[in-house]
Structure to design on (252 residues):
């Protein structure tokens, strides 16, 4: 009886231990850890630290952008320095997209000052930079910059339209960007009185008509054809420009 009693007592103790374990597991499953005020404080501190770390990363990215743009705006800086600034912005297009989303039109205009016909490499990297930036900045900022840039000097117009051509080569481009570019480019094309614009504008229409036919609505197409016919029958249009117009007609 004593042995049986000991077994019974031992079994009771084991049952108590098992019950305590189940209770502990149940409490842990219900979030017992989270109910500990000390653990709650630790979790809250960790979340705040991660949030502050992200905010600091965004702030440092914005400061770096401003530093690069100020370097490009400084007329005393040489071409090599400007190229490094632009390439640094290109690298940030992949690593600090949240910082790029806070850029404004004035900053894009400052970058556009690096468009030049005198230095091919600087012009090329600036085109690449702005074509990537336009995917990260707000749509109204990009379209405002585009509308203003195509009414600037010839180097800026060419650089801006080169950006649009590079942008068209991307696989995923928002339809709103395409519609906005076609709208502002059509207004610009209609206002021009010099055939200098033809070699810059017509390749954009050719590329967009080929890659984004769904965005060429009837109204856009009819307005474009009217402008092109007007240039074709103009006595001052050269044979070379007439050939460009014909090639563009055929591409449609």
């Amino acid at each position: 009886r004593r042995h049986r009693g000991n077994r019974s007592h031992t079994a009771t103790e084991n049952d108590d231990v098992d019950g305590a374990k189940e209770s502990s597991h149940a409490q842990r499953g219900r979030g017992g850890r989270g109910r500990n005020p000390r653990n709650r404080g630790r979790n809250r501190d960790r979340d705040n630290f991660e949030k502050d770390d992200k905010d600091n990363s965004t702030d440092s990215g914005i400061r770096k952008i401003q530093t690069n743009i100020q370097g490009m705006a400084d007329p005393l800086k040489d071409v090599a320095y400007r190229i490094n600034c632009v390439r640094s912005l290109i690298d940030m297009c992949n690593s600090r997209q949240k910082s790029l989303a806070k850029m404004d039109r004035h900053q894009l205009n400052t970058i556009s000052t690096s468009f030049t016909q005198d230095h091919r490499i600087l012009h090329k990297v600036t085109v690449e930079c702005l074509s990537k930036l336009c995917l990260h900045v707000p749509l109204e900022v990009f379209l405002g910059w585009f509308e203003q840039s195509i009414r600037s000097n010839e180097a800026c117009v060419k650089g801006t339209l080169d950006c649009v051509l590079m942008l068209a080569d991307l696989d995923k481009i928002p339809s709103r960007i395409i519609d906005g570019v076609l709208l502002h480019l059509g207004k610009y094309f209609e206002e021009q009185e010099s055939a200098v614009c033809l070699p810059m504008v017509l390749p954009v229409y050719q590329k967009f008509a080929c890659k984004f036919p769904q965005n060429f609505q009837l109204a856009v197409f009819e307005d474009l054809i009217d402008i092109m016919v007007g240039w074709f029958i103009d006595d001052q249009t050269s044979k070379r420009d007439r050939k460009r117009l014909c090639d563009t007609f055929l591409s449609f």
